[in-house]
Design goal:
410 residues, Immunoglobulin-like, five-stranded antiparallel sheet, 13 helices, 44% helix, elongated, binds iron/sulfur cluster
């Protein structure tokens, strides 16, 4: 329950900085689904084609462990930041806060002031909700574009061929976003957000928090309540750190001019037991290592792992047989396409004394397909080679070479 009516601050040291950070993150989050190179997105959970895109590489959903690794890395990064700098994520970067801040600007512009009466008052009210609803619709649309390619979506929208699934997803996204951003707002942080519930376990004495200087407050606080009025969470920071505090520092900004008039330092400010926070200590060291390992795993999967896995095994029932003056060995070649694109695979053998059967050695491998191919390898009896190299290559020139022993006469 608010002690005093809310007042939306126009500016302030932290408020200004937060607006720029918020604008940057908002633009980034809106823009991500549109960043596409050669049909692959920076990030897309493509539910239509059952695949996900990460850093312009496409993975089938069967490789969900890459997403799992990304989630671990993200959660570790969030916990690490919280251990050191408290809930800066909430106040500075969380979409819930950023979008709510934008809506408050619309509200401030449109909402009827006390002196505006009659029809004008209702028109302003309608304009306020219409602007907020339009903005929320764009946000809801962008949420859907994280699951359905936005170019495909817009193309189908203009040609009137949008699927029922896409329309339904947009509707659900819009209703949830509208309820959350227009009605629930900061109550979400207090009652629903799991991250807010975890903060008690994540804070230590050295964590940076927004705090009130109780000792100085006894003599210096003017009881103006400006720090309480500007608080989006509706709390009084003078009562100590509370779970609803999102570390936005609006209260610090509000106190600054009051104390400046008295020629004194802020009563409310970012505060930590350590002047320079230690970045690797106790819990934060463990979290940093887990996050680093998960990040290395994801980087390896995205940038270094090949799409094609190849395995060659000997057929124990067909070894070293002599047929028409040739020694013949049987093998099984397993080709596993881990990517979602079709691959054209060619198989060859060296040195040239060896001959591969069947002689047709081009294979089309669909996305996520695994095939087992029986192969025969021949060598004239007079030759003395005891091993060969099987070369498996895709159309992009990615090559795998497998060394294999060759059994002569059994
Ligand atoms: S107490 Fe201060 S920092 Fe915490 S939410 Fe309220 S205004 Fe923001
Ligand atoms: S803004 Fe500063 S002076 Fe005013 S009530 Fe809050 S702490 Fe006291």
């Amino acid at each position: 329950m608010r002690k005093v009516p809310y007042f939306h601050p126009e500016s302030g040291t932290y408020t200004n900085r937060r607006r720029w950070v918020g604008l940057f993150f908002f633009t980034f989050l809106i823009g991500v689904p549109f960043i596409v190179i050669d049909g692959a997105s920076l990030f897309l959970l493509d539910v239509v084609n059952m695949e996900f895109h990460l850093f312009f590489r496409v993975f089938p959903f069967t490789q969900f462990y890459v997403l799992f690794g990304l989630t671990i890395a993200g959660v570790a990064a969030l916990i690490y930041v919280t251990l050191i700098w408290g809930r800066v994520w909430c106040g500075w970067m969380c979409p819930q806060t950023i979008i709510t801040d934008f809506l408050r600007v619309f509200e401030k512009f449109w909402l009827p002031r006390k002196n505006i009466k009659g029809v004008k008052r209702y028109l302003r009210l309608i304009a306020s909700y219409a602007t907020m609803t339009g903005f929320v619709f764009l946000v809801a649309l962008d949420v859907v574009w994280y699951f359905i390619n936005p170019y495909d979506f817009l193309n189908r929208l203009t040609t009137g061929t949008l699927s029922a699934f896409a329309i339904g997803s947009l509707l659900v996204s819009f209703i949830i976003t509208w309820l959350d951003m227009v009605l629930v707002r900061q109550s979400f942080c207090e009652y629903l957000c799991p991250y807010a519930k975890m903060q008690g376990a994540l804070f230590s004495e050295s964590t940076t928090v927004v705090a009130y200087d109780e000792k100085r407050g006894e003599t210096d606080c003017t009881q103006c309540l400006m720090c309480v009025r500007v608080c989006p969470a509706g709390i009084d920071i003078r009562d100590g750190l509370q779970m609803s505090c999102i570390a936005c520092a609006a209260c610090a900004d509000a106190c600054e001019p009051i104390m400046a008039k008295k020629g004194k330092e802020n009563l409310v400010r970012y505060w930590s037991a350590e002047k320079i926070p230690s970045l690797i200590k106790d819990k934060s060291l463990i979290v940093a290592v887990v996050g680093l390992l998960a990040t290395i795993f994801v980087i390896w999967q995205v940038f270094f792992k090949v799409d094609l896995q190849v395995n060659l095994s000997r057929n124990p029932f067909f070894t070293g047989k002599i047929i028409d003056g040739q020694i013949v060995n049987g093998y099984t070649l397993v080709l596993d396409n881990l990517g979602s694109d079709e691959k054209r695979i060619s198989v060859s053998i060296s040195p040239s004394e060896f001959k591969l059967l069947p002689t047709v050695n081009q294979y089309n491998l669909k996305g996520n397909e695994t095939v087992r191919l029986p192969l025969m390898v021949e060598l004239p009896v007079e030759m003395t080679e005891t091993g060969f190299i099987l070369v498996v290559e895709d159309e992009e020139g990615d090559k795998k070479e497998i060394k294999q022993g060759f059994f002569r006469v059994k």
